């Protein structure tokens, strides 16, 4: 076999131009896949980070009968969080927790009205779980005022110090309207936070809503990846609540990720098929050109399967070299995208809605060594398989017919 | 007897037309013979060599190599017989351009898989010396003249010490002087190595060098002359 491999290697180096062309087809496929999969993975990573950063935390605890269909309903309020919070402080894996109170309201700037989600947050405890204040681009947070997403502020023509009105129903069902000044504006990587959210002090929200509870308690743990294990542990020990890790809460988004993965696999399949056709063609030409050599090899006693393996080995080398070179070129190209990324700011809204990504601004690629390994293995296997089809032809060729070739 | 051929027939089929290439060929070859098959183009001499060398199949008759009928053997069995018993020299040399001279010559030994790398290297050097190509081992076939390439082909055919070397028009692509040298070399090696040489030719000079001359016409043996003793068919 070693001898056959060495002859095959010399054969592919013999027709350099053709080999390079075939390499390039395969290399292009691999480079394209590596950049695409890196960007997709980067997009997904950022999206998951945003979900954790702006919504789920590591683990989210809600009312036992929390209604996902009307998440901002007052029916979803945990009336008393004191006992729950006390229990949470006994778990060593919990590094921070905070209460949040979400409700649906209308924002009125005196001219226009728009629906918003108001979140009451505890500015002291919130820092242990979220990094909301990190995203403030104008002003500073003041308990008496509101933090508002930059897009919402722009749409409602509000700037720092401007007064607006929030109207909502409290737990009794009465309409309440309060006057709030804009004290800070934030630009978050999460499109929903930018365009639909207003943050108020938790105590103020509790007072105006007429409830001492909250809609959720969000937890940060010592290990993000073990969140599901921890949430299971909490479920076993704390009853009467809906307790979910970020992985469990993002299952819908995970579905989008899987769909995107399937779409990129379809693209990969199409490109790979084109490259494989190129390899079939290369091996066919190689067989046609080497008919006399095939005859000579058979005359010297090489059995049909060994001659066939010689051409399969050519396909294997083309696949291996093409995918390794492609991976190296792809890795070099990916360095740029990992460090600089692609700035989607100008099309972010449209992009976010079309891509299913909870992300805004610059999207950076990530390194996925699993993808590198997969694409090298897949291209080499596919190339070997592609060469098997024409190489089988060699089995049927009679030595005398090969030698007769002029 | 090294080789016995009994009533060998072979036809080529082109559409509905059958063209008989060999008609009831019967002959015996002893070990160490230096035999030429002569005849005009299309007479059947190449077909006969191909059938003897298991490159082509006869339709009827027997080809008995050292007592074993090789007709009707399976493709892989025929490949095994070719590997162990035959060496081939072609009109167009058929060397592998990507391999060096040494690599071309060692190829049959590599396929046999019975010799160590050291033994192979020693045998190649010895063979290069025998064919007068010492110092050419690292070169590639296209850097050599036609005569030199045919010498490499001879070395390649001879290195595994086959029972029979089959040479189809080995001098046809060479000028007369080089052709004479090649036949001289083959004859010398035939004596030295005691390997049987069967070759086809239509060159009179080459025919004169043969120990035995078998003339073929229209697929039939018409004359069989051994060392001047004619045996009319």
List keywords for this structure.
heterodimer, A: 406 residues, alpha+beta, six-stranded mixed β-barrel, two-stranded antiparallel sheet, 19% strand, B: 233 residues, Rossmann fold, seven-stranded mixed beta sheet, four-stranded antiparallel beta sheet, 7 helices, 11 strands
Helix and strand pattern of chain A: HHEHEEHEEHEEHEHEHEHHHHEHEHH
Number of strands of chain A: 12
Which two chains form the greatest contact, residue counts included? A-B, 21 and 26 residues
What spatial order of strands do you see in the largest sheet of chain A? 2-3-8-5-7-6
Q: Give the strand content of chain B.
A: 25-35%
Helix content of chain B: 25-40%
Summing up helix and strand content along with how strands pair, one would put the structural category of chain A as alpha+beta
Task: Tell me the CATH superfamily of chain B.
Answer: P-loop containing nucleotide triphosphate hydrolases
Question: What is the total domain count of chain A?
Answer: 2
- Radius of gyration of chain B, in Å, reads 18 Å
How many helical elements of chain A? 15
Residues in helix, % of chain A: 55-70%
What general form of chain B does the structure show?
Answer: globular
Radius of gyration of chain A using CA atoms only: 31 Å
Tally of DSSP β-strands of chain B: 11
Global morphology of chain A: elongated
Oligomer: heterodimer
Distance between the termini of chain B: 20 Å
Number of helical segments of chain B? Answer: 7
Overall CATH class of chain B: Alpha Beta
Structural notes for this entry:
The complex is a heterodimer of chains A (406) and B (233). Chain A has 2 domains: 2-51 and 253-404, no CATH class; 65-239, no CATH class. Helices cover 56% and strands 19% of the residues of chain A. Chain A has helices at 2-14, 16-56, 82-88, 123-126, 150-155, 191-196, 202-209, 227-237, 246-249, 251-289, 291-299, 304-339, 348-355, 369-396, 399-404, and strands at residues 59-63, 94-108, 113-121, 136-139, 146-149, 163-169, 175-186, 197-201, 216-221, 241-245, 342-343, 362-363. In chain A, helix 1 crosses helix 12 and helix 2 packs antiparallel against helix 14. With 233 residues, chain B is α/β, with parallel strands linked by helices. In chain B, 35% of the residues lie in helices and 30% in strands. Chain B is built from 7 helices and 11 strands. Chain B has a 7-stranded mixed sheet with strand order 6-7-8-3-9-10-11. In chain B, strands 2-1-4-5 form a 4-stranded antiparallel sheet, with helices on one face. In chain B, helix 3 runs parallel beside helix 5 (146-158), helix 4 (117-130) packs across helix 5 and helix 5 (146-158) runs parallel beside helix 6 (176-193). The model of chain B has no long low-confidence stretch (mean pLDDT 91). The interface between A and B is medium-sized, with 21 and 26 residues.
């Amino acid at each position: 076999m070693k001898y056959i491999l060495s002859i095959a290697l010399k054969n592919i180096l013999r027709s350099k131009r053709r080999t390079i062309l075939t390499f390039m087809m395969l290399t292009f496929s691999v480079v394209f896949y590596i950049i695409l999969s890196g960007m997709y993975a980067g997009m997904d990573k950022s999206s998951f980070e945003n979900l954790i950063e702006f919504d789920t935390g590591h683990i989210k605890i809600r009312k036992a009968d929390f209604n996902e269909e009307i998440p901002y309903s007052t029916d979803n309020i945990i009336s008393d969080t004191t006992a729950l919070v006390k229990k949470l402080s006994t778990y060593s894996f919990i590094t921070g927790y905070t209460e949040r109170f979400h409700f649906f309201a209308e924002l009125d700037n005196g001219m226009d009205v728009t629906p918003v989600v108001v979140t009451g947050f505890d500015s002291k405890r919130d820092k242990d779980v979220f990094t909301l204040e990190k995203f403030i681009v104008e002003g500073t947070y003041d308990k008496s005022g509101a933090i508002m997403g930059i897009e919402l502020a722009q749409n409602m023509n509000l700037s720092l110090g401007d007064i607006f009105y929030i109207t909502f129903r409290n737990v009794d069902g009465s309409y309440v309207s309060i006057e709030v000044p804009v004290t800070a504006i934030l630009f978050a990587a999460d499109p929903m936070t930018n365009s639909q959210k207003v943050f108020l002090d938790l105590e103020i929200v509790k007072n105006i809503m007429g409830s001492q509870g909250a809609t959720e308690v969000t937890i940060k743990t010592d290990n993000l990846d073990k969140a599901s294990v921890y949430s299971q542990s909490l479920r076993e020990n704390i009853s009467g609540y809906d307790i979910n890790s970020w992985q469990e809460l993002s299952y819908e988004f995970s579905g989008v990720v899987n769909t995107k993965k399937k779409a990129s696999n379809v693209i990969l399949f199409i490109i790979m098929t084109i490259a494989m056709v190129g390899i079939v063609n290369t091996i066919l030409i190689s067989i046609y050109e080497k008919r006399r050599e095939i005859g000579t090899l058979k005359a010297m006693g090489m059995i049909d399967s060994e001659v066939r393996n010689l051409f399969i080995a050519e396909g294997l080398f083309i696949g291996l070299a093409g995918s390794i070179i492609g991976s190296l070129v792809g890795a070099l190209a990916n360095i740029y995208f990992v460090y600089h990324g692609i700035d989607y700011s100008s099309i972010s809204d449209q992009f976010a809605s079309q891509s299913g990504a909870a992300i805004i601004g610059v999207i950076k690629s990530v390194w996925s060594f699993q993808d590198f390994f997969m694409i090298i293995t897949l291209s080499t296997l596919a190339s070997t398989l592609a060469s098997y089809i024409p190489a089988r032809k060699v089995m049927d060729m009679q030595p005398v017919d090969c030698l007769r070739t002029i | 007897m090294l080789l016995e051929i009994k009533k060998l027939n072979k036809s080529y089929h082109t559409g509905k037309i059958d063209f008989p290439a060999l008609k009831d060929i019967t002959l015996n070859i002893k070990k160490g013979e230096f035999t030429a098959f002569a005849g005009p183009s299309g007479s059947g001499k190449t077909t006969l060599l191909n059938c003897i060398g298991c490159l082509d199949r006869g339709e009827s008759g027997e080809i008995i190599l050292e007592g074993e009928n090789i007709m009707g053997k399976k493709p892989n069995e025929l490949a095994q017989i070719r590997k162990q018993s035959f060496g081939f020299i072609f009109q167009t040399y058929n060397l592998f351009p990507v391999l060096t001279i040494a690599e071309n010559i060692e190829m049959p030994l590599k396929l046999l898989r019975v010799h160590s790398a050291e033994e192979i290297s020693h045998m190649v050097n010895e063979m290069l010396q025998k064919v007068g190509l010492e110092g050419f081992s690292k070169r590639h076939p296209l850097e050599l003249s036609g005569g030199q390439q045919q010498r490499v082909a001879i070395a390649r055919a001879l290195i595994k010490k086959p029972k029979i070397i089959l040479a189809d028009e080995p001098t046809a692509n060479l000028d007369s002087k080089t052709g004479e040298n090649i036949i001289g070399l083959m004859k010398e090696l035939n004596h030295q190595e005691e390997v049987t040489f069967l070759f086809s030719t239509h060159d009179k000079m080459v025919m004169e060098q043969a120990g035995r001359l078998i003339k073929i016409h229209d697929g039939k043996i018409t004359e069989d002359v051994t060392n001047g003793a004619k045996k009319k068919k």
